[in-house]
Design a protein that fits this description.
Layout lengths: L15 H17 L3 E2 L5 E3 H7 L5 H6 L2 E3 L5 E4 L4 H10 L9 E10 L11 E10 L4 H17 L6 E6 L3 H16 L7 H9 L10 H7 L11 H17 L4 E2 L11 E8 L8 E7 L3 H4 L7 E7 H10 L12 E5 L2 H16 L4 E3 L6 H10 L4 E5 L1 H6 L1 E6 L5 E5 L3 H7 L1
Parallel strand pairs: 1-5, 7-8, 12-13, 12-14
Antiparallel strand pairs: 2-4, 3-4, 5-6, 6-11, 7-9, 9-10, 10-11, 14-15, 15-16
Helix pairs in contact: 1-5, 5-9
């Protein structure tokens, strides 16, 4: 038997309703805020992620699925969605469209990492991107969209953590202070942190090694080094979140794991999936478009892992029962009735109903057993007598009651039931 690759997971028909539910809410929530869907390729030129995500990030150094195609080009399965959208924004001259450009995506992403609870090597993200506005209002609206979505799927006990990691101007001053602090303890840190020390010391704060986390626990806080513009921006974001009625906590430890972030960063955190509790994360990335070859364009957005979200929903018992049920199962007796059943099923399907009939050539007892096990709402036994008489008895599968109905009015009966 050929088994599934490590870090991937099948979606079974019995679980499809869960995905349909959250994806439908994602689309409707995005639409409420004026965001429209965007789709980018599953793979991009590797250079895009080296430039956009950052060469010192864990994603680039450890986790990317990179391969060479038959033309000798280096390609990478997308490890996240934002860099591809930025490339699309530049390549399709979307800066010439009406600003702000507000887009969302539902996409698979690929990262070679140790599989963990709610995080797979192939997982799926709901993300939004807002281009063209440098106003704190854009930050607050994107956070409000995330908050609304999480509330609409049934999660109202998450904690919003926010921080600001400043701009290149104040980041330079902070990096110098951070290097002075870490330099005294660098020999006791992991090899990855030692490599990051010169290139990008801020990434050290994102290290998951326990010995490194102990050292950085008392490190200087970037929030204390913000320039006047970045501080005013962060203060405004907090005021706007209060206007939206969204509670939050300032967490100076949030830096996010990607190099393109500037100023606002945020996470929605849950305690229902253990230590790895971030359900949604995002922030502002004003330098990304320029980094991938476009003109300077402010941007803000978030990414949300659907597997992790579904895990939280399951742990908190917030997932409702599946709504996708067969309206009617037609159980024919004999070949002529089976032929009639196929035509009747097609007419009812054309009127928007979900209808099944036998394709296993089972006996009537086995057919009714299948109708019950499949969760059909109603079932009717169809033989020559019913066809000749133009009416049949329809059984309500939930309570066993039966009622007579003309074959020509079945659709009306089912829609009103």
């Amino acid at each position: 038997m050929i088994s599934i690759p490590k870090g991937t997971k099948d979606m079974l028909p019995s679980d499809a309703y869960k995905w349909h539910c959250v994806e439908s809410i994602a689309r409707s929530t995005a639409a409420k805020f004026g965001f429209k869907e965007i789709r980018t390729p599953m793979f991009e030129h590797t250079e895009l992620f080296l430039r956009g995500v950052g060469e010192t990030t864990d994603i680039v150094t450890k986790e990317m699925y990179t391969f060479e195609d038959k033309g000798g080009r280096s390609l990478t399965l997308r490890p996240e969605g934002t860099a591809g959208v930025a490339r699309c924004f530049v390549e399709n001259a979307l800066s010439q469209s009406v600003m702000p450009m507000k887009a969302y995506y539902l996409a698979s992403v690929f990262r070679y990492e140790k599989p963990q609870n709610g995080r797979l090597r192939e997982h799926h993200q709901f993300g939004v991107e807002c281009y063209g506005s440098d106003s704190p209002s854009a930050d607050a609206e994107v956070i409000a969209l995330a908050s609304t979505f999480l509330s609409d799927v049934g999660l109202d006990s998450l904690e919003l953590n926010i921080n600001s990691i400043g701009c290149p101007k104040c980041r330079a001053e902070y990096n110098a202070a951070l290097k002075r602090y870490i330099g005294e303890n660098l020999e006791n840190m992991c090899g990855q942190c030692k490599a990051r020390f010169e290139k990008n010391p801020l990434r050290i704060l994102d290290c998951k090694e326990e010995k490194c986390r102990k050292i950085t626990a008392d490190a200087p806080r970037i929030i204390d080094f913000l320039c006047d513009d970045c501080k005013a921006h962060f203060d405004s974001v907090q005021d706007l979140l209060a206007q939206y009625g969204i509670p939050f906590k300032v967490n100076a430890g949030i830096v996010r794991g990607l190099d393109y972030y500037t100023r606002t960063v945020f996470e929605f955190v849950s305690t229902d999936i253990g230590a790895q509790g971030t359900v949604c994360g995002g922030g502002r990335y004003n330098n990304l478009v320029e980094e991938v070859g476009g003109k300077p364009t402010p941007a803000v957005g978030f990414g949300l892992g659907l597997e992790r979200l579904l895990l939280v929903l399951e742990n908190t018992e917030k997932l409702s029962a599946p709504k996708e049920k067969t309206d009617l199962y037609i159980a024919p007796i004999g070949e002529s009735a089976a032929a009639y059943a196929r035509g009747l099923a097609m007419k009812l399907r054309a009127q928007g109903l979900c209808v099944e009939t036998d394709i296993m050539e089972r006996g009537i007892k086995a057919q009714m057993k299948y109708a019950d096990r499949s969760g059909a709402r109603f079932a009717l036994v169809l033989g020559d007598e019913e066809i000749n008489g133009g009416k049949a008895r329809i059984k309500n599968m939930s309570d066993g009651s039966e009622s007579e109905c003309a074959l020509t009015t079945i659709a009306d009966m089912l829609k009103n039931a």
